[in-house]
Input
Amino acid sequence: MSTGRLQQWRERGEAAQARLEEARSRHASVRLGWALYEGDSSIGGGLLAGALAYRLFVLLLPTSLLLVSGLGLYAGAADKSTRQVTREAGLHGLFASNVAATASGGARWLVFILMIPAVLYAAAKLYRALVVVHGLVWHSTGRAGRTTRRGVAVLLGVLLATVVSTEIVGWIRRHDQLGGVAALVVYTVVVGGAWLALSLQLPNGGARWMSLLPGAALFGVGLLGVNVFNVYVTARLVEDRANTYGALGVATALLFSLVLVGRLAVVSAELNAVLYRRHGDV
Output
């Protein structure tokens, strides 16, 4: 590579840096974005998001078994087939077939009972991971908070609210397109409000609830975007090409979605922290 080409690239880099510095001095949004980038880099936001994705995956495993065994028990009590119950629950295609086949298996009572403490344990570990992440964001240390029963209970409430809201939005969207648009707004408000309640239990530098609203709004809108992507892209891709990708495709799509959720959790905390340090309580 010629020396002249290297010199051109160096000059372009210096010019781009100069334009960025000028934009930072003029635009508050650029300063905010740069502060988020620097804060995220200093604590390893990408690695923290991966850790949260892992904890979410660990929680998802026993939760899935709990729900699937519960569907099987409900089907037996209501004298319905497992396929009929999965359709009533809003599950379709490849996922409905897999869930129906699993729910029709034996020892459902044993699986259901064993998965309850497993879900509680995994939820406590996920909450601890969130405590560490928020402690690093707000106080630069992972020891700024501790795991509490109330916090774990609020986290379980957030997860339940998210699942129920997703199912309700899906049902409305299938029956009324116009109503589906309003349901998306309600979904964003419910999920954002649930995340706000959880943020109050996590390390937050003593900020009041109004100062945590930006991160909650970002999480609600971002999670809606992740769900829309899963419904219209991921689910259809996996179902249409199940023979090509199989279980590996399902696992890849699932892990990608969980990493996005973990990234949302980290960035929402960072957004609140940056704004609070600049403006204090609202």
Summary: The two ends are 55 Å apart (CA to CA).
